[in-house]
Write a structure and sequence with these properties.
Layout lengths: L5 H18 L10 H6 L41 E7 L2 E7 L2 E9 L14 E5 L2 E3 L1 E5 L5 E8 L8 H13 L6 E7 L3 E8 L2 H8 L10 H15 L4 E8 L10 H10 L4 E6 L8 H18 L3 E2 L7 H13 L2 E6 L10 E7 L8 E3 L3 E2 L11 E7 L3
Length: 385
Amino acid sequence: MRLCSKSSLLSLLFAASSLLVAAQAPSSPPAPSPAQAESQEPSPLLPETQPSLSVDRDPILSPDAADNLPVSPGHLNAKIDQEAHKDHGVYTLRRDVEEVVLNCTVLDSQNHLVNDLTKDDFHVFEDNVPQQIISFQHQDLPVSIGLLIDNSGSMRDKRAAVNTAALDLVRASNPDDEAFVVNFSDEAFLDQDFTSSIQKLQEGLSHIESRGGTALYDAVVASADQLARGARRPKQVLVIVTDGEDNASSLNLEQTIRRVQDLQGPVVYSIGLLFGEDGRGAEAHRARRALQLLSDETGGVAFFPRSLADVDSIAAEVARDIRNQYTIGYHSSKAASLGGYRTVHVEARAPHHGKLYVRTRTGYYPRPQQPGQRNTESASDTASE
């Protein structure tokens, strides 16, 4: 594998896009002969063997549209879950591709997690129209997590504490979670693909080459795409740790949020290390706004610690938040073919509680069902080791 520059990667993706358009022409390819069938390469759905990280590093996939090559049925973006259970190390997931899925955190007036609600306590609205809840779960489901760590020059003295906190977050999470590591500066590098191994994640986090700018938005979109393509868990999360404003991305903040919403993508938790910003007040303000919006729009939380000493406790809070969410599904009363952005609002009311606050994503863009695509599907996913 070789290290590609961003310009060369985009050129390759443009060429791939042209080939994809040509492949979609109406002509039907001839069926392969038996000999050809035997010589075909193995299915791309088989796990790849990761190369030694000490030899080479490849940039994470580009967020451009040309990157959206066919995705396996087990990884459709309108995911979850009328059922998810583990049997002899294998998760069996049943998904309804038309279902809109919301991961919801419920807090009381004291900002404490509320964990004793039932399906009837929730009310979902899409574009202010009540929706019928068709699936409901409140259990500690395993999660696919992307750890996005700022590797720019200003992070050099912070990385040791950040890496410790990131690993503690994984340790405090469901033991069947899987995670990958992306280190980003002016480019984003996938330094460890999906794994449940703490040792491998530690090795991925150890690639510290603090230099260059901060291409946060490009890293977020590419990591969301990485989750859409390869995640094997029904819930998906991105955890971002950065200490400054994006200054190197090809995308802006609004485009980034739109792309994540297009994917019906992950919940984003942000940790902004914006303390000690003497002389950079405006930059810190813009960085804070960006992280806040990324988290608010996806149903996550943005944290702004006062010092590095607070990061580890924040990581524990993120893990606790993820493990105590309600998962609610509904079929939109508006046809997906109508397109357009749909706002989502969830309320919770229970007689034994006072005012309750529900945190979830603010909306989504529907993905029309593709010709020949079934309404429901099942997939058995072996837990990664």
